[in-house]
Amino acid sequence: MPTTVFTEVAGRARAAATTLALATRAAKDAALEAMAATLLDDEAAILAANAEDVERARAAGTAENVVDRLRLDGPRLAAMAQGLRDVAGLPDPVGEVVRGSTLANGLQLRQVRVPFGVVGIIYEARPNVTADAAGICLKSGNAVLLRGSSSALSSNTAIVASLQRAAAAAGLPGDVVQLVPGEGHDAVKELMRARGLVDVLIPRGGAGLISSVVEESTVPVIETGVGNCHVYVDAAADLDMAERIVLNAKTHRTSVCNAAESLLVAEAVAAEFVPRITARLHEAGVLVHGDATFAAVDGVVPATEADWGTEYLALEISAAVVPDLDGALEHIRRHSSGHSDTIVTDSAAAAQRFTAAVDSAAVLVNASTRFTDGGEFGFGAEIGISTQKLHARGPMGLPEMTSTKYVVTGDGHTR
Amino acid sequence: MPTTVFTEVAGRARAAATTLALATRAAKDAALEAMAATLLDDEAAILAANAEDVERARAAGTAENVVDRLRLDGPRLAAMAQGLRDVAGLPDPVGEVVRGSTLANGLQLRQVRVPFGVVGIIYEARPNVTADAAGICLKSGNAVLLRGSSSALSSNTAIVASLQRAAAAAGLPGDVVQLVPGEGHDAVKELMRARGLVDVLIPRGGAGLISSVVEESTVPVIETGVGNCHVYVDAAADLDMAERIVLNAKTHRTSVCNAAESLLVAEAVAAEFVPRITARLHEAGVLVHGDATFAAVDGVVPATEADWGTEYLALEISAAVVPDLDGALEHIRRHSSGHSDTIVTDSAAAAQRFTAAVDSAAVLVNASTRFTDGGEFGFGAEIGISTQKLHARGPMGLPEMTSTKYVVTGDGHTR
C-alpha cells in the first residue's frame, strides 16, 4: 500500500495534470521560459546544493567519472536552461489530430493526441535530467513525479524548487513537477506500484535499474536504453566505409546506448578486414574480445559466451566472423538488445534483407549506430530511447509522451 | 520458471513469427482464405468437439446464457469463416511507412510498421474468438498463443487444428497459431510471466480476468474492455434526443462494454427529464439505481456508493442529478472506467469542454456510447477495445497490432 505521503503527492500531481491537460501551448511555453529564467536566477542556490552532493559523493569514495556526471557548473546550468527554451520552441503535440473521418452514418470521428496524465521517471546520477524531463513532460501536458538518485538529492531538490516556483509564477500549478518523497528502494517501490495514480513509468539508467523496474512495476513501463548494438560488415561492403563506420560507432562516444558493442564480419571479407579493423581498433585503444579468427590477431582476447551479450559502454568490443548475412541475422537475433544494428554493404538485396529481418528499434544501412538519437532524428527533445515494442520504439520525442482519445460527434446518433 | 513444454511452444511461435514477419500480403491472405475454407470443411469435427464442451458445461450446471456463448452451430461457424475472409480483404498494416524524411545530412529516415512478434491472448468462453484472434494476428504478422477458457477446450483444440492445417497448406508455418498447453491458472501464469518469449499479452474478458492479468503479468499488457460508460444529459440538451440516446446506450445490447451503465442529468433539466426517462427505462425493463432525486420516482431503488462504479452488463443503470457540467465532469473523473462517455447537449461550449476534459478512450457528443466499436469506426476487424493509455486506446484494429521500427539509410554516414 502506498504511504499517505506518496498518495498525497500523487494526488497533487493528478490535480495538476488535470489543469495542465487543458493549458494552451502559449501558457506551457511561458512556463518553460519562466523555468529557464528562474534556473539561471537561482544559480547560486543550485550550485551550492550541488556542491553538497559532490562533497558527499567524494567523501563516500565515489569514482571520479560518476562524480563528474553529478557535478553542475555555470555552463551546465545554462545548457539546462537552454534545453527548456528549446522545448518551448517545439510544436505542441497535444490536440494533434492523428486521424479523422466522417463515417457513412454522418458521425464525425477524430483521434486526438492527449497527455498521459501523470508520468513517473526514475533516473540515475545526472541532475540535468531533472530539468530536461520536467520540460518535456510539461510541454506534452503531463505532470511528472521524478525519482532521481539519492546521491543527487540536494541538487534535485533545489532544481525542482526553482521549476515549481517558475511554473506557479507563470500561472500553472507548481505541482506539475515534484520529487517522489522518501528514502531508498521503498520510495521507488511506491512509484512502481502506483497503478491508477501514475499512468506511465520511464526508467532511465543502466540495465539493472531497468530490469528491476520492468519486473516489479504494475504501472505500465516504457523500457529505455540498453544497447548491445551490432555493426555487420557484409561480403559486399566497401571496406573503407566499413572501417570508418566501425570506428565511429565504437569510439565516438563510448558511454552511450547507441555505441557499437559487437562487430560481425562476413567470412568472404574476413581475411582482408579482420587484421585491418583490429589494427585500427587497437590504435584507438579498443580492447577486442574476438572469436577464433579475431583471436588469432595479436592483442585480441578470446571472447567468452557472455561477451556476445555484453554492453561494455567502454573502449571494448566483441568481434566475430559469421559465414554470411544469414549467419549475421542469426547472431543478432540471439544477442541484440533490439536497440540499433547496422549493416555495411553495397548490395541492395543484402540491405533490404537486413532491414526487414533485424527486429530492432533502429536498423541502419551504411551509417553509424550513433545516429539513433532524438536529436539526430530531428525530434528536438528526447526523453529516452525505447527498446520495447509497445507504444514507442526508438527515440522518444514529444508525440511519444502522449496518448490519444477518440472524439466522436453526432447529432442524435443511435444504433 | 516456464515449463519445458511451454518454452517449447513459445519457441515454435517465435520461429513461426520470424517467418511470418517477412511473408507478403498475398501469402497471408491466401492463408486466411484457406483457414476459412478449412473451418467449413471441418464443420462436422468442430461441431462434434463443441457438443462435448456444451454437454460438459450443462452437466456442470452452467447458466444457460453462458452455455449459449459457448455453443457453435453451422451459421456461427460460417460467420467465423466469413470473419477470416473479411480480414483477408483489409489492407496489410505491415510495411506501412508511418513517417519518413531525409535529414539535413542526407540520412534517409523511415518509421515502418512491423509485427510485434508473438502475441498472447487470454479469453473467456466464446470459441469464435479463437478464429477471430488468429486471423487478426496472422494478418498483422504476429504468431499467436491462445489461452481460451477450459470450458471451451475441445472446441478450441478442433478449431486450432483446422487453422494450423490450413496455414501449413498455404505455405506458412502451422505454428503461427497455437493453444497454450496445460491446465488451469498455472498455464495462464506461464503465459503472463513469459517476458522475452511473448511480446504482448491481451486479456479479453471480465474485470476480474483483466485486473489479475494486469497485476501478475511481466509481459507488457494491453488492457481491454471494462466499460463503466456514462451518458450526461446537459442543461442545454434536446431532451427527445437525450431520451433516444439513453435508451439506445442502455438497452440496445446490455452485455457489451460500450453499453451505458450510468446516467447523469443536469439539475436545470432534472424536473422534466428525471420522471420522463425513468418511465421510459422502466418500460424497457431497466432497473434504475438512483440518487435521492431519482429515488423519489416509484420503482427506483436507492443507489449505494458501489453503484457508481458498477458495470452491470444487464438491464440496470445508476442515475444521478449533478449540479451542472462541472459536476458531471467531477463524477465521471471519479467513477468512469475510461471507456466511453457521452454528452447530450446543444451547447457548443459544453460539448467542447466535455470532450477536452473527459479522459476516456472515446468521448462522444450527441451519440450513443454503443458507437465505440472497431466495426462502427470502420476498422474492419477488432481485437478488443483498449482502456489503457499506452500504445493503443479505444477500438484496436490491425495497425494497433503492430509496432514500428526505424530504418535509416546512409552512404557511409558517421558522426
Write a structural description.
2 copies of one chain form a homodimer. In chain A, α2 (25-41) runs antiparallel to α5 (74-88), α2 packs across α7 and α10 (239-251) packs across α11. The first copy, chain A, has a 7-stranded parallel sheet with strand order 10-9-11-8-7-12-13, sandwiched between helices. Chain A has helices at 4-21, 25-41, 43-59, 64-70, 74-88, 128-139, 153-169, 184-192, 207-216, 239-251, 267-283, 292-295, 325-335, 348-357; strands at residues 97-102, 108-115, 118-123, 143-147, 177-179, 200-204, 229-233, 260-266, 287-290, 301-302, 316-322, 340-344, 362-367, 384-386, 394-396, 402-413. Chain A folds into 2 domains: 4-223 and 392-409, Aldehyde Dehydrogenase, Chain A, domain 1 (3-Layer(aba) Sandwich); 229-371, Aldehyde Dehydrogenase, Chain A, domain 2 (3-Layer(aba) Sandwich). Chain A is of the alpha/beta class and 415 residues long. The mean pLDDT of chain A is 95. The first copy, chain A, is built from 14 helices and 16 strands. Helix content of chain A is 43%, strand content 21%. The interface between A and B is large, with 70 and 70 residues.
